[in-house]
Amino acid sequence: MNASVSVDGFIAAGNDDPGPIFEWLVSGDVPLDGSGVLKVSQASFDHIRPYWDEIGVTVCGRRSFDITDGWDGTPPSGIDHVVVVSHRGAPEGWDPKAPFHFADGIDAAVATARELAGDRTIEFAAGDVGGQALAAGWIDEVRMDVTPVVLGSGRRYFGSVDAQHLLDGPDVIVAGNRVLHLRYRVRR
């Protein structure tokens, strides 16, 4: 499970605007991808780029898909496939060759993601879908890119999780420009 998050635990405001949460992605001088837009500190690059390279599939919710307009049919960060958890299928006019797959529920999404990922990592986006996956026991680690922003309210990192879940660590702590990268293993 992974996302950028405010210090008070939100991934976006209530209107889905992340505000300055993503400032760290343009606060350095090391290109993070081929777009020329994302430039981070060397410490952030050394932490994030290898992780992005190991991801085979990202599982996200329909809200993320709709807000980003399905990333125009190209998965973000060079990821091979995106599985969208949604009770609705692909939007009308959607390119059927785009590497996006729609699953009706978290268990169906996991089954599809496992098929597609092979031996690569399955990443869950934080928020409602990530929270559902954590509650179902599908999450092995929680990665947070904590930014120096207080939103006060909005979309919670763990969505609507309402039960206690214990994490170990953090086993990774990396300070970058405008971000603190943390990684916790989920205690079993």
UniProtKB/TrEMBL annotation:
This is Dihydrofolate reductase. It comes from the Bacteria.
